Amino acid sequence: MLTPHILVVDDEPRIREVVHYALQREGWRVTVATTGKEALAALVEQTIDLLVLDIMLPDANGLELCRRIRSQTATPILFLSARGEEIDRVIGLEVGADDYLSKPFGTRELVARIKAVLRRVMVTPASDTSLPSSTSGCAVESVTLDIERHEIRVDGRPLALTHTEFCLLRRMLERPGIVFERAQLMREARNTDTHITERTVDTHIRRLRAKLRAEGLAPIVTVHGVGYKLEASACRSIRQP
């Protein structure tokens, strides 16, 4: 596996220094930026595997910056913020972040969170024993999930999803018609019990639905008091190995 390249975006010198040292100690490549403008330039000029992004920047609101980045790339984003209320975490997830860590934080937890996100990003079918061995792709109406390429397409066009959204849709595609409880769906999609709340699951599903609805699709059904399911009648296998 190639050495991950992490972009750290924070205007506080002490935070940048501590995070930079902790990530380099893991053997990762690290690039730092102090403004939103510098962050956008780094994304254009370099291959970035994950962003550690402060919400409060001198020239940009981190939430708006996240929206802009997410509209152009699926590169994972982990927010850092001094604001630790649940509503702030939910908003961060709504705009496309993959995880959220409140300041002050420990570098061990930060590294663990980054590793967890990178594992979800870099998972391959060969290492994922939960995958049915006979299925390499599924489709919901005109939405195609190509597991081998870790890609979603609508009528052949790529659809930008966060890695969590991709995992959620993948799990439901693998088991159409099955009702997933919120906690179960989140555990299967993220493979962690950390910070799972019903509101977090609802936020990811709402974002996923909005992206599908923008393409004229609505296959995800709410089962009130339980969770969500994908309509079995809308799913079919499209490729066999």
How is this fold's topology laid out?
Layout: E1 5-9, H1 13-25, E2 29-33, H2 36-45, E3 50-54, H3 62-70, E4 77-81, H4 86-94, E5 99-102, H5 107-122, E6 137-140, E7 143-146, E8 151-154, E9 157-158, H6 163-174, E10 180-181, H7 182-190, H8 198-213, E11 220-223, E12 227-230, E13 235-239
Helix pairs in contact: 1-5, 6-7, 6-8
Kindly describe this structure.
The chain is an alpha/beta fold and 241 residues long. The protein has 2 domains: 5-122, Rossmann fold; 126-239, Arc Repressor Mutant, subunit A (Orthogonal Bundle). Helices cover 39% and strands 22% of the residues. It contains 8 helices and 13 strands. It has helices spanning 13-25, 36-45, 62-70, 86-94, 107-122, 163-174, 182-190, 198-213, and strands spanning 5-9, 29-33, 50-54, 77-81, 99-102, 137-140, 143-146, 151-154, 157-158, 180-181, 220-223, 227-230, 235-239. Strands 2-1-3-4-5 form a 5-stranded parallel beta sheet, with helices on both faces. The longest helix is centred in the middle third of the chain and has 16 residues, at 107-122. It is globular, with a radius of gyration of 18 Å. The two termini are 25 Å apart. Residues 123-135 and 236-241 have low confidence and may be disordered.
